[in-house]
Amino acid sequence: MIWQTYQLDNIVSKTTEDITLWQTEKGILEISRDTLVLSIKLNEQRKGYVFHGHGKLLLDTVVETEEGAIGRPIEKEVNKAFIMIGETEEIQQRLSIANKEDLTEMGYESEQKFVAKAEELCDQFLGRRINSHKCFGEDHGFIFAFQNKADKLDTLVAKNSKLVYKAINLAFVSNKNKVVLKSPSEVVCATNGKSVIIRK
Asked: What DSSP line would sit under 14-76, residue for residue?
């Protein structure tokens, strides 16, 4: 294991257009133009970003069972700062330097205030020192961490057909035709048209 310390860039950028950060048949995450952006680096290589702007997350967390559909899709506005670890090159080409107006629009008095918020968020999610193989592997797809109402983090991990979403009172795991949904009222496992439902 290699444990190293990540660094945050000190230059705040913004998106120059609406961007789809992630999309599969199970969901989509979009952010709007003028979203603030700060790079997360490891060994001087860009590995992800902290974003703060206006976005939307849609997730299909419905499980089809013999008793019918269980669960409901997630549709949430993403208006707080959040983390993305994953593919960065395409995003980097759609950024420009943020100005004071851009920062003020999102409630920051200065670049330092946004950097401090990003550091706080990264400390909460990654800790000061991270396992670079585990968190920053080249083939790990995408990892997102969103602030929730309880000041904790909801996480979304996605790679190809695999999806894991963990939020307050909800866990959802999907891999092709295998699905597990855990909520306060039930646990549902479904595969190849067969399902098991455990009600609490």
From this structure: EESS-EEEEEETTEEEEE-TT-EEEEEEETTEEEEEEEES-EEEEE---EEETTEEES--EEE
**How many whole angstroms separate alpha carbon 52 and alpha carbon 19?**
13
How confident is the model over 164-192, as a mean pLDDT?
A: 93
Q: At 167, list the tokens.
A: 């939020």
Looking at residue 102, its amino acid is D
* Cα–Cα distance, 56 to 190 (Å, whole number): 27
Q: What is the pLDDT of residue 1?
A: 36
Of 159, 166, 187, the residue nearest 26 (C-alpha)? 159
Domain boundaries, the chain: 3-168
Residue 2 pLDDT > 60: no
pLDDT score recorded for residue 140: 62
Q: What is the pTM of this model?
A: 0.90
Residue carrying the six token digits 């396992």: 131
Instruction: Sort 176 into a burial class: Cβ within 10 Å, 0-12 / 13-18 / 19+.
Output: exposed
How far is the C-alpha of 136 from the C-alpha of 142, rounded, in Å? 10
What are the tokens at 135?
A: 């968190």
Phi, psi (rounded to 5 degrees) for 116: -65, -40
For 74-102, write each residue's pLDDT tens digit.
Answer: 999 999 999 999 888 889 999 999 999 99
